[in-house]
Amino acid sequence: MKQEQDLEHERRLSGKVAIVTGGASGIGAETARLFARHGAAVVLCDRQDKMGREVAASIMDSGGIAEYRSLEVTREDAWTALVQDVEQAHDRLDILCNIAGIARGIDPTTGEMTAMNLPELPLDAWTQVMRVNVDGVFLGTRSVHGAMVRSGGGSIINMSSICGIVGSFGNPAYNASKGAVRLFSKAAALQFAGDRIRVNSVHPGFVDTPLAKTGHNGEVGKKRMEATPLRRFGHPSDIAYGCLYLASDEASWVTGSELVIDGGMTAA
C-alpha cells in the first residue's frame, strides 16, 4: 500500500487531461510520454498519422492513457471539434501544450524546402511559417479557454525558442514567429489569469529533434556546440521535463513567464 501511495505522490499530473500538439515526434512525443507516465490522459495530435499512432500505442502498452488525433493546427474548425471531443470523452481539459511547429516553408510547385535568407525569402514561405507557428498557437489557446474554465482552471504551454528571445543569422520568419509566441503568451496570461488559466512559453536551445538535427552537422553544428556552454545538444526529455513542471500544480503561481532551456547559450 505504501509503495502505491508513494507512486501516486510521484505522479505530478494524476487525474489531469492534456492535449499535446506535435506529438508524433521529437519534443512533442517525449512530452506526451512523460505526461502519461505522470498520470495524465494524453490526446496527442499531429499530421504524421502513422508516427502519432505509434507513439500513442507505445504509451498505452506501458500502462498509460493516450489516444492519437490527426490535427491541422491552422484550422479553426478542427480545433473546435478536438476540444469538444476531448471534453465529452474525459469531462475536463486541464493542459494544452502547443508544440507543433515548422522551421521552413515548402515550395508548392517543387515540394522542396524554400530558402529562408531574407533577401530571397518568398512571402508564401513566410506565411506558411506564421500560419503554423503563430496562428496554430493562437487558435489552440483560444479554443481551450471555455473547457478549462469549466475544469476550474488549467495550464497552457506554448513552445517558443531561444530564437524568440535573440536573433539568428539564418531564418527571420522562424525568429519572428517564435518572438510572437513569446509575447502572445504573456498577453494571454494576463487575460486568462482571472479564470485560473496559466499561460507560459518554453524556449529550447539546440535540441536533437527531427526538425533541428540537420543543422547539427558539419560547420553549423560545430558553431552551435561552441555556443552552448554545457557542451551538448539538448535531448527532447530536457524540454519535456520543463513542460511537466509548468503543467503541474507545482507551478500554480507561474504565469506569463519564459522558461529557457538552452544549455546556457543565452546566458552569454
What would you say this structure looks like, in words?
With 268 residues, the chain is an alpha/beta fold. The chain has one domain (9-267): NAD(P)-binding Rossmann-like Domain (Rossmann fold, 3-Layer(aba) Sandwich). The protein has nine helices and seven strands; from the N terminus they run αβαβαβαβααβαβααβ. It has helices at residues 2-10, 26-37, 49-61, 76-90, 123-143, 145-150, 172-192, 218-226, 236-247; strands at 17-21, 41-46, 65-70, 95-98, 154-159, 197-204, 258-261. Strands 3-2-1-4-5-6-7 form a seven-stranded parallel beta sheet, with helices on both faces. Helix 2 links the parallel strand 1 (17-21) and strand 2. The protein is globular and about 50 Å long. The chain starts with a helix and ends in a 7-residue tail after the last strand. Mean pLDDT is 92; it is low at 1-8.
Notable characteristics:
about 270 residues; alpha/beta; Rossmann fold; seven-stranded parallel sheet; about 15% strand; globular; disordered N terminus
Helix share bin: 40-55%
Shape designation: globular
Secondary-structure arrangement, i.e. CATH architecture: 3-Layer(aba) Sandwich
- Strand order across the largest sheet: 3-2-1-4-5-6-7
Q: Approximately how much beta-strand content do the residues carry? A: 5-15%
Counting DSSP E segments of at least 2 residues, the number of strands comes to 7
The CATH superfamily is NAD(P)-binding Rossmann-like Domain
The largest pleated sheet is described as: 7 strands, parallel
In the CATH hierarchy, what is the class? Alpha Beta
N-to-C series of helices and strands: HEHEHEHEHHEHEHHE
Q: CATH topology, anyone?
A: Rossmann fold
User: Ranges with pLDDT <50 over ≥5 residues?
Assistant: 1-8
Average per-residue pLDDT, rounded, comes to: 92
Q: How many structural units, i.e. domains?
A: 1
